[in-house]
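Data availability excerpt. The first of two example chains:
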Amino acid sequence: LATGPRQINSIFYEIRTYDIKPSKMKEFVEMVNKYFHLRTAHSELVGFWSAELGAMNKVVHVWKYDNFAHRTAVRHALANDKDWQGKFISPALPLIEKQHNEVAYLVPWCQLGKPPKEGGVYEWVTFQMKPGGPALWGEAFQAAINAHINTGYTKLIGVFHTEYGLLNTVHVIWWNESPDHRAAGRHSAHEDARVVAAVRDSVRFLESQQNVLLIPLQCSPLK
């Protein structure tokens, strides 16, 4: 989690979270599935999910950019894309209650992964760490993540550290075959002395944690 490798690599990820009006969720998802190819023509979509457990009427999507100039060019092109603006943006905006975005980097010791097969579920875990940055809590956090990976019950997709938005926030994406498979794996992991020790060391730096179970949308590259 050292800052050096992040600054050398200009690639970053924009995490966009939308709260959808409860009565409009079905309509919003249908619009995404129908028209989102207009958006992905401009830049790379990593994943697009809807919340199933831990949040309601919420969608999360992640975009990859080469650098900030790349994002600026993409946003300019989208603003001038009449099809995108007319077919999706104009009718979709009334369905959205709130929008939030963050800029994050993959931590240096993690590469973006893919699930071994389609059809599973994703767990999005947000950790709010104590102020001080990765120099304070990075080593312990990495050890806790590796302890869970080593149990073999879950697949790590990515670990992101915020650069814009609420700082000292870490988002971790896991993939599991099913919610029941995830539950059984976690119960076993929490009886593993190595996991217990690593987590106990890491939580010294933890302020809060939120877990959300996500279902990929039809347009999501990560399914």
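And the second chain:
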Amino acid sequence: RRLYFDTHALVCLLEENGFTTQQSEVIVSALVKIMNTNLDMIYKDMVTKVQQEIALQQVMSHIGGVKKDMIILEKSEFSALRSENEKIKLELQQIKKQVMDEITKVRADNKLNLNLEKSRVKELIEIRRHPVLPVSRLLVKEHHAQQDRALTQTDRKIDTEVADLKTMLESHKLDNIKYLAGSVFTCLTVALGFYRLWI
């Protein structure tokens, strides 16, 4: 639509305010040209309601397609994460079972060693009850030294087994923390992708 106004009335108004007829007509014609040029520029950038509705429908259909793709991607990503989590749970259960088996084995070995030491001590007590010759005292001392060595070796074995178990548990903990951190970052990436698409 074009904007029309009474040019003659504007010319008369300008003449009443001191302009000549020729000046008034030149001013009005310049105003009309400027207004027409401005309106042409405005109408070039404008769209009709039908065009706007078509563009809106296209955008909405595109958004719907993106939503469907994101839902499919989300389901596949989360199903993959769930399966990975299940695998990790199974591995952790197996590791826990192995650790418990190792602990029971170490305990059984320690009990056996302690029982052996108890029996040796009882033997020593029995030897001390009887009259001891100088030679048997040397044997008792050697026996004590052997017992001390056996006890220290047993303690060392226990310490090394416990240290090995602790290092194994720590390594598995670190692996699980790394995997969980990767899973969290993956979820955050998917969420940020959703967020950017919605905005």
